[in-house]
Design brief:
With 267 residues, the protein is an alpha/beta fold. It has a domain at 18-90 and 165-262: P-loop containing nucleotide triphosphate hydrolases (Rossmann fold, 3-Layer(aba) Sandwich). The protein is built from 8 helices and 9 strands. The chain has helices at residues 2-7, 64-71, 105-116, 120-133, 149-162, 179-196, 207-213, 248-262, and strands spanning 18-30, 37-49, 53-57, 79-84, 91-93, 167-171, 199-203, 216-220, 227-232. It has a 6-stranded mixed beta sheet with strand order 5-6-7-3-8-9, sandwiched between helices. Strands 2-1-4 form a 3-stranded antiparallel beta sheet, covered by helices on one side. Helix 6 (179-196) links the parallel strand 6 and strand 7. Helix 3 (105-116) runs parallel beside helix 5 (149-162), helix 4 (120-133) crosses helix 5 and helix 7 crosses helix 8 (248-262). The longest helix is centred in the C-terminal third of the chain and has 18 residues, at 179-196. The chain binds adenosine-5'-triphosphate (ATP) and magnesium ion (MG). Residues 64-65, 95, 171 line the site of magnesium ion (MG).
């Protein structure tokens, strides 16, 4: 009995170093004659541990894209602090597919590798892998204009994944896709993330997408966006996107997040 007691493992305290620290971030947009100000984000604070997958949900216009653009250094902040603990710039998948129309699908996916000077053979292998992953192999030589909107967005995802950055910022990457393709890509993204453990900040309108993918879900208030809740998602990994929908906790959490979105001030 004593032996059994001695064997009881002590609870592990996991202190993963933060990859992203955002403190009281505030952002305002001024119109051209500076007489009208839109406060987009106000006093928003959160951190993301290295290798953590965090989803941000919030009503349309609450400042989600703005936060991501500030993280990617594509937008300035008004006040607050943003720290990314990485040597690389983050890879970003934009809300609207941002493929280059004059390049083929394969050339679009290869672009970050080409810019980095990756050897040709490695580029080719990596591009093939990414195209297979996103179901685009047979469209490798197509131009973006020959693809559907959803397929163009898949090219953006493949391109962001092709480049092996520490931090991946994804702004509703699957928002334009049909439900079935979306599930397939969620499963693929989970698989890739479980293999690579990149730090991911993923924005979505879909509560169930957030719960499917994330370790934590951050819920934002309506504009000006601020943090309403920071919820831990308890599902073990690896996850099966279909199976997890049989878990009652999935629907309890869905209900909880929807309640927060419906009454962001709290009960
Ligand atoms: N360049 C800009 N100039 C002026 N206002 C802007 C600019 N970009 C965003 N805004 C305003 O900031 C607010 C937040 O916009 P943002 O695009 O971050 O919202 P969002 O949460 O991503 O919305 P959605 O879910 O619809 O994508 C909105 O009111 C928007 O009008
Ligand atoms: Mg947006």
């Amino acid at each position: 009995m004593t032996a059994a007691l001695q064997k009881t493992p002590k609870p592990k305290v996991v202190c993963a170093p933060p990859a992203i620290e955002v403190t009281t971030l505030t952002k305002a947009f001024y119109n051209s004659d500076a007489d009208r100000v839109t406060l987009a984000v106000s006093d928003f604070s959160f951190s993301v541990a290295r290798g953590e997958f965090v989803c941000i949900v919030g009503p349309s216009g609450c400042g989600k894209t703005t936060v991501l653009r500030i993280l990617a250094d594509l937008e300035s902040k008004l006040s607050g602090e943003v720290k990314l603990h990485t040597d690389d710039a983050p890879a970003m998948v934009f809300q609207e597919a941002s493929v280059l129309p004059w390049l083929t699908v394969a050339q679009n996916v290869a672009l970050p590798l080409k810019l980095k000077g990756t050897p040709q053979a490695q580029q080719k292998a990596r591009v093939e892998e990414m195209l297979a992953l996103t179901g685009l192999t047979s469209f490798a030589n197509a131009r973006p204009s020959q693809l559907s909107g959803g397929m163009r967005q898949r090219v953006s995802v493949a391109r962001a994944l092709a480049d092996d950055r520490d931090i991946l910022l994804m702004d509703e990457p699957f928002g334009a896709l049909d439900e079935q393709t979306r599930l397939v890509l969620q499963q693929e993204l989970l698989r890739i993330w479980e293999a690579t453990r990149k730090t991911v900040v993923f924005i979505t309108h879909s509560v169930d997408e957030a719960l499917t993918l994330a370790d934590r879900v951050l819920v934002m208030s309506p504009r000006p966006g601020t943090l309403v809740a920071d919820l831990k998602v308890p599902f073990e990994r690896p996850r099966d996107v279909v199976e997890m929908r049989r878990d009652k906790r999935f629907w309890d959490l869905t209900y909880e997040v929807w309640n927060l979105l419906a009454s962001p001030g709290g009960a």
